[in-house]
């Protein structure tokens, strides 16, 4: 089947495709906050209806958490490859809301120095990226009435909240979700205009703990002095996580399972068009603050981290309150690489904290948080070479294999539970401000992303 | 004029007096939160009406902030002493609200192991204590038709929010507020049933700062590693405030102006009935955590502190958010002793922080927060001996001169602006949970507190 008319159809349909994306962006499907449960449901319904409109046998599938969306279509020529396409329809919380220039769920087109962007929560992570593949399929159907590949769509609604329902769902539907290869669109380009295929992902460990000192909040005039303040204790313990000389994490055994990056891979990364200064300066850094002796890309792609995502205790309202608080709270996440074991790492971090607790301070841990190991892609598969060619054709720039600082646990589960390799192609840019106020997705990423998937499907079908 | 019938009148009227206090406690006069401005006004109106009902020439006096209440009554025999009575009608915020067993502004009587208590925000700090003096005056008027002393009532509505209007008001009304001695009822008893007169108070310095790292909140997968987290920086800086070996504050020059307590005063403190174990255990401490080498009472009354009252940044909502936050915030207060200068101390603390900032981290300070030096009372005045006798008679226990860990800046201002000495007598107990959830005031403190003021007025009038 001819590719060119499909690409033309995509160009003609782009403004309508953008409207469809905006409809999806208007649904505040924040998965981590129970208050938005109904909205997550609505987003799933919207996707089911959209897939059905192009002849996909799609349905919303209930879970104990937010629903999955699964769709099947098999109108491809006999012997065509079978791909499982994954994306997630849930989005991050929007706070701090006051830093948004426009309401996060009232998406709009804006002109910027880098061209038109689609502004709104989820535009880049991941609704916009998810829709690049859906729109590519729509164009194939419109032009040829069929698709070049057999396709199973698999959309999740809990990616931003730890995917609690994912493993049981995959285990319960092993047969239904079988395919030759998983395609994932949730990654970014190493730099503007450089098509990128992620060859490795960092894993993730989440934990949260609360330190309790006095039974109740105390008056700092009565107990300030003899009383031990859990915020002081928390500061001491968080500070002890790090070695300020080397920039490394100081938790004993933290780097167990971490491997150095092979020299040839390092060379590739150094030549992949990544602009270190732009990457750091764009957010207000003048230098890389991670482990000394490692480049910014190594710190981001190949080194583990222990990050404090939230820390709070005492009075944070208007004015002042002379209180010595009873509790201090801390949320942390670690990014894992190589063979780091999330469960062993959790134990090491908890031991680090417990070994350092002062008398009269107790710690409680949140035991509902999960971890996932790092992933390395199977670059020997022919689909990777096919995709590299297709992307290079679309972007007039040699596509590159990159690392990834983020974590996409589903890739590991596809492998361990479904026995599936994954290929990660995404069109986001570093300045998309995902997880931040004023998230956006370049219209160019959306448009050329759709065209890229059309080309990739064509290439791997050959 | 005979004292005994006044004391009997107080006993007969105690349940009605308790009802009046509960009316005042129902008004949520939280001064630090602008949302409660109208309530602060209502509390002032309530007090004006109550004073007028007993023949006091009272009026609400507007300020740029919350109003003052000033009342005069001069029906005492010629040559009677003139006292200025001070209390505050504003209260602390009530968060964390979920830790209150009953709504904080729906006061009620409760039976406890220590007898009946009046439960509710402000019951002890300071509405209940303020009303002990008002009720004592009411009883004198009811029995004798006159008061034994000439009295000026002076009630403030900004004590819990730094008293921004106090200094200008005192300066503008020097003449009107003249008296022989100021009486202040905002302190506690050194231990249950031991009448106490505060001989020294700690001063107070408030400050607040915000650390800013990246321009925006960042994705911890993209910038975790090269990015410097302001929460990590905040933890390092807060930890650097303290010397964990000695328990002392590590800010250079912090102890300038601090004097050791004379041996004879230390001996008095050791014999004043203070139960150190009970004081610490009641809130969950097994030992004193302050400066090594100083007793709990010294740490509380005679040593300065640097306390973190609030620390926050990043995500603190439900679930997890993989964010590297842009900002971290910290509220601190210091308790000052001896000749410590609040302004010099503020400079030392700010220099300590600024000297330790990492590249790419900036700090902003809140410049609207004030400080006040420590105060030492003039125990040579005859009124102190008179009050000590009156209190000893009422409580059947030798009254003691104690230190105070808290700060009552007005005492310093009465001295520097009005040229007035102050005498501080209060009936609160350490377990009153002031500034905390479930604040209470013992009915015994209220009842015997009223009787105590009746006796003190009688004694100093002689």
From TrEMBL, chains A, B:
Any one GO BP annotation for this protein: proteolysis
Keywords noted in UniProt: Hydrolase, Metal-binding, Protease
Residue ranges annotated for the Peptidase M20 dimerisation domain, each copy included: 209-357
Protein's UniProt keywords contain Protease: yes
EC number: 3.5.1.18
GO molecular function: metal ion binding; peptidase activity; succinyl-diaminopimelate desuccinylase activity
NCBIfam families: PRK08201.1, PRK09104.1
Name of the molecule in the record: Succinyl-diaminopimelate desuccinylase
Source species of the chain: Thalassovita autumnalis
Gene (name only): dapE_2
């Amino acid at each position: 089947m001819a590719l060119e008319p499909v690409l033309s159809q995509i160009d003609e349909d782009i403004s309508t495709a953008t409207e469809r994306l905006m409809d999806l962006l208007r649904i505040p499907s924040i998965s981590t906050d129970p208050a938005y449960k109904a909205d997550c449901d609505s987003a799933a319904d919207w996707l089911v209806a959209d897939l059905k409109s192009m002849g996909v046998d799609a349905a919303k599938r209930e879970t104990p958490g937010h629903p999955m969306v699964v769709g099947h279509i098999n109108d491809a020529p006999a012997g065509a490859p079978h791909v499982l396409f994954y994306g997630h329809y849930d989005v991050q919380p929007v706070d701090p809301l006051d830093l948004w220039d426009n309401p996060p769920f009232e998406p709009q087109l804006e002109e910027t120095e880098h061209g038109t962007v689609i502004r709104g929560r989820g535009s880049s992570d991941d609704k916009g990226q998810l829709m690049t593949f859906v729109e590519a399929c729509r164009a194939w159907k419109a032009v040829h009435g069929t698709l070049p590949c057999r396709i199973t769509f698999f959309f999740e609604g809990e990616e931003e909240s730890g995917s609690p329902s994912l493993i049981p769902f995959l285990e319960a539907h092993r047969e239904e979700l079988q395919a030759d290869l998983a395609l994932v669109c949730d990654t970014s380009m190493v730099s503007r205009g450089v098509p990128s295929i992620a060859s490795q992902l960092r894993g993730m460990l989440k934990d949260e703990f609360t330190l309790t000192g006095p039974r109740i909040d105390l008056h700092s005039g009565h107990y300030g002095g003899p009383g031990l303040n859990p915020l002081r204790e928390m500061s001491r313990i968080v500070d002890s996580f790090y070695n300020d000389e080397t920039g490394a994490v100081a938790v004993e055994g933290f780097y167990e399972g971490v491997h150095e990056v092979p020299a040839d891979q390092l060379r590739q990364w150094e030549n992949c068009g990544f602009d270190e200064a732009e990457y750091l300066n764009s957010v207000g850094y003048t230098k890389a603050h991670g482990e000394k002796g490692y480049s910014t890309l190594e710190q981001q792609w190949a080194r583990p981290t222990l990050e404090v995502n939230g820390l709070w205790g005492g009075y944070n309202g208007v004015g002042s309150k002379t209180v010595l608080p009873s509790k201090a709270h801390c949320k942390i996440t670690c990014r894992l690489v190589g063979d780091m074991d999330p469960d062993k790492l959790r134990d090491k971090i908890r031991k680090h904290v417990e070994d350092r607790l002062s008398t009269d301070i107790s710690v409680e841990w949140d035991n509902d948080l999960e971890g996932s190991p790092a992933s390395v892609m199977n670059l020997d598969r022919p689909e990777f070479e096919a995709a590299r060619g297709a992307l290079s054709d679309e972007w007039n720039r040699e596509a590159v294999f990159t690392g990834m600082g983020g974590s996409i646990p589903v890739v590991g589960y596809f492998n361990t539970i479904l026995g599936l390799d994954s290929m990660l192609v995404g069109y986001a840019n570093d300045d998309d401000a995902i997880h931040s106020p004023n998230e956006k997705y370049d219209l160019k990423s959306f448009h050329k992303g759709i065209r890229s998937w059309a080309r990739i499907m064509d290439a791997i079908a050959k």
